[in-house]
Amino acid sequence: MLKSTYQQSLLRSNLFVVWNELVKNIKSLLAYPAILVFWAVFPIFWFIPFILQGQAFVGGPESASFAQITGSGEYVPFIVIGAVLNSYVNTLLYGMGENIRREAYQGTLDYVLAAPCNKAYVLIGKALSESLSSTIFAASQLTISVLLFGMNLTLGVMLPVFFIVILLMLGLYGMSLILAAFSLMYKQSYDLSQTIGYVFYIFAPVRYPVESLPTWAQIFGKLIPLTYALIIVRSFMLLGTDFSAVYFEVIALLIIDIVLLVAGFYLFSWMEEKTKKSGTISHH
Amino acid sequence: MNKSNKEHRLREVKCPTGFNWSNLKAELKAVWEANIKDWKIEFAYPVSFIRQLISPLVFLLPFLLYGLVLVGGTESANLKQLVGTDDVVAFIFTGYIMMGFIGTAVWAMGFSIRRERWFGTLEAIYVTPSSRLGQVLGMALHSTVHQILGTIIQFIVIYLTFGLALKIDGILPALAIFALMMIALYGFGIVISALGLILKEGWVVSDSLYSIMMILSPVAYPLAVLPTVAQQASYLFPTAPALIGMRSFLIENYQPEVAGNVFLHLLGLGAAWILFGIVVFRVTDVYVRKRGMLKKF
A187 falls in which pLDDT band (50, 70, 90)? Predict the structure, then answer.
């Protein structure tokens, strides 16, 4: 079987690596059904307090003050969209670095890195599996939210939203590659990814509009891919706009994606070489 | 002769049993040492220590900023209708400081056993002649002090940035309520740590319980906005009566959402949760050791 694999064209061999990495990660996820159910359902419990807070402070489903800043007074869909897109940060940002760490814990990292294939395809396989699981979790959370809070979704809106989610995932891949690189070299990338998660949570408009932050914090927030993704998706879903109204944000998101992906691949290759030379790959 | 004397003395050595002053002192020393050990581990990772110190503030800010954007200022007319005060900042701050301590019970205590298992030291701790609960309580002590430090930072930042109006004369009774709440939360934490002994992926249960408790506790909203069943369920946990009691002492014009004596309610909950926790921990401990599951994870 191995022999036939090597005889295949380079592209097919690489796709074989990506596919098997994807299958391996999905099998690993399916082996823990409790975790699967947890990520599909429980993130909803994290934003329900914000909806109840809205009811207590405003006394209805709309806030005039909210409408002045965001253009729509409906805070419930605002919170739901923020939470669902933020769940990609939770799974993708921590997922990739932790995935590499898990290989080290399980004692399989040496074999993965010694395999006669380009490591970029292993990472692509890992990224695809994280994206697939994130999308399943996000879709589940969105469906439950639609049923619970009566949000209105149409296919015409969801298609451009899906495109923006892909752009968001590309930016997060870049960041998670950087984290995976640090994980290879310094082993403890957990604190770094948690700190980045904090930065996203505070400076990106996950729970509140970015305009409610001080000017310096708004500038900082504009460097985060999630900020643009949230602005664009909320424009589509809450204000009913199209791409022409948010073309600047789409271009900004694309530029950030390219910078992060290039930096991520470069850093990972560099760190991989360094760890191989230092002989500390299997350390954890 | 000497040899037989020595053997005799060795046979005489017994593990300390029974409730007496000398055993209690020994157990308290074990709790203290477990606490010191956790501080030493924590200081070995300074970045992690600082991150965890500011995390209470990081998780409070979204509730606060979102609340301010919702009402377009610091006063909510609807909140005043519900609980008599319109002060959004004081209401959210007094509510959120509790959440960190729920985290202490669920995460720190719940994972004390699990963490030892990861480090490979659980079996060594289990064979020491001290109570297994000492380890859990040592971790709880460390985590409570850690959380208090985080809350002080939280208070300073919120006071300087948003202004915080609390009644100074209400601090002492509020602290008494806090202490009673912590006793009940420790009981809850002991139950979670027992689950950590038996479940391979205990964090799923801990996080689920934390999420449910977060909704049932009136952290950022009064109990009145919850459905009736949820309101009744919230009285089984110490956070709801503690929050209502603390707010009535700390916030001007606050009208408690429920009648009854908060102190008695918390005393009852504390006794019930501690008793339940100890029983669950004992049963799980015996079950795990009989099945030889101590080292499995």
Answer: low
- Name the DSSP class of B75: B
Q: In chain A, what are the domain boundaries? A: 8-55+63-278
The proportion of chain B whose per-residue pLDDT surpasses 90, expressed as a percent, equals: 28
pLDDT of residue B260: 73
Query: To the nearest 10°, the Cα dihedral for A269, A275, A279, A283?
Result: -120
Closest of B136, B145, B102, B146 to residue B116, by C-alpha = B136
DSSP code of residue A72 = -
| Nearest by CB: B88 against A54, A57, A201 | A57
CB count in 10 Å sphere of residue B208: 17
Structural contact between residues A104 and A243, judged by C-beta atoms closer than 8 angstroms:
no
- Select, from the ranges A95-109, A134-148, B92-106, the one with the highest average predicted confidence (pLDDT): A134-148
Which of B51, B77, B225 lies nearest to residue A52, judging by beta carbons?
Answer: B225
**pTM of the prediction?**
0.82
- Per DSSP, the three-state class of A283 is coil
Burial class for B43, CB neighbours closer than 10 Å (0-12, 13-18, 19+): exposed
For residues B210, A74, B64, B263, the Cα torsion angle rounded to the nearest 10 degrees is -50
Question: Could you tell me which residues of chain B have a Cβ less than 8 Å from any Cβ in chain A?
Answer: 45, 47-48, 51, 54-55, 58-59, 61-63, 65-73, 76-79, 81-82, 88, 201, 204, 207-208, 211-212, 214-215, 219-222, 224-226
ipTM field:
0.83
Q: What percent of chain A clears pLDDT 70, i.e. is strictly above it? A: 91
Domain map (residue ranges) of chain B: 26-291
The per-residue b/e assignment along B272-281, b for 16 or more CB within 10 angstroms, e otherwise, is ebbeebeebb
